[in-house]
Amino acid sequence: MNWNLIGHAWAVDLLRRHVANGEARHAYLFSGPPGLGRRTLAVHLAQALNCTNPPAPGEFCGQCRDCRQIAAMQHPDMAVVQAENEGGTLKVDQVRAVQHSLSLKPYQSKYRVALFLRFQEANDNAANALLKTLEEAPAHAILLLTADTPESLLPTIISRCEILRLRPLRVEEVESMLTDKGVDPERARLLAHISGGRPGYANRLLEDSSLLETRAERLNDLQALLQSTRVKKFSYADKLSKDKDGMRQAITFWLSYWRDVLLKASHASVTITNVDYSAEIESLASRLTLPAVRRTVSDLELALDRMDRNVNPRLLAEVLLMDWPK
After folding, report:
1. pLDDT digit string (tens) for 250-298?
2. Is residue 221 part of a domain?
3. CB 133 within 8 A of CB 143
């Protein structure tokens, strides 16, 4: 049994032993890129901790009332805390609201569970409030955090959590998962590559065709912008900056593309992500110097970081596009 997960067997084995032996930690941090299965693994841990009819020690049935309520994130002893939208801010009031409930005895289960999603989006006050909760959590409370990287959180928070660093799966594993669902092999191969080995993201791409359409639009924009005049780049930057979520998404797609260019420019033997743009990526890599490509990748990574720090989005977009190699 792997808790109905694709991959991450080592993490499931570790958590299963903790539950089976009554050695569950008071706090866990699941880190890794979005779409990797961080939340799913955390939810399954909550089920294993509170299942009333486990088929084996450390397992969960998935059918009892507690398992079903936790899966739906509607359990009376489970609190889910996250920013209102992806890329938003998780605020101190949200953390404080959970602190009181954690101090109370569980209503119907063995443990009260607080699930803090994308905790790298917490502001300083929220992070400090959680630290206090971690230091004073009662024995019946389990705190589960997800974040892109442990390094994005306060060192004092990291030191109080059991950290599970999740890694992307092999593309072949995700491709197999999709074909098992009846997805056409060629489409499964494409989605597996685009997902970068993240099964959750692959499922999102499968279920929401608009994501692929948006991706194609942004990557086509990228190629056009490389040949555009300064006036057109300024105009595009102005339009892009008016939708912060859309801008973050565009930069994420562009970063994936430029990382593929970097792989080709450096003659790496690693398979690229955007396999449906392989010809364009090969052509771009052959025309640019390796330092220029590296600088562009670094600029895009920095731009994503700055967006989370409330930098002026229009100015950020203008500088980013003007600095692209021609």
Report:
1. 999 999 999 999 999 999 988 899 999 999 999 999 999 999 999 999 9
2. yes
3. yes
| Cα–Cα distances in angstroms (integers) from residue 295 to residues 190, 257, 261, 300, in the given order | 28, 14, 12, 9
Q: At what angle do helices 92-103 and 124-136 cross, to 10 degrees?
A: 10
Residues 296, 243 within the same domain:
yes
Q: Is residue 4 part of a domain?
A: no
Query: Which H/E stretch holds residue 285?
Result: helix 278-287
**Do 219 and 251 belong together in one domain?**
yes
Residues 41-61: pLDDT tens digits? 999 999 999 999 999 999 999
Q: Which long-range contacts (CB under 8 A, 24 or more apart) does 134-141 make?
A: 134/26, 134/27, 134/160, 134/161, 135/160, 137/26, 137/27, 137/102, 138/102, 138/103, 139/26, 140/105, 140/106, 140/110, 140/111, 140/112, 141/26, 141/102, 141/111, 141/112, 141/113, 141/114
Q: What are the structure tokens assigned to 199, written together?
A: 């099964």
Q: Is residue 43 part of a domain?
A: yes
DSSP-derived letter for residue 109 is: S
Q: Verify that 16 and 153 share a domain, yes or no.
A: yes
Count of structural domains within the chain: 3
| 28 & 151 share domain | yes
Which domain covers residue 180, as residue numbers? 171-207
Using alpha carbons, select from 153, 120, 150, 168 the residue that is nearest to residue 31. Answer: 150
Nearest to 202 by CA among 229, 222, 180, 174: 174
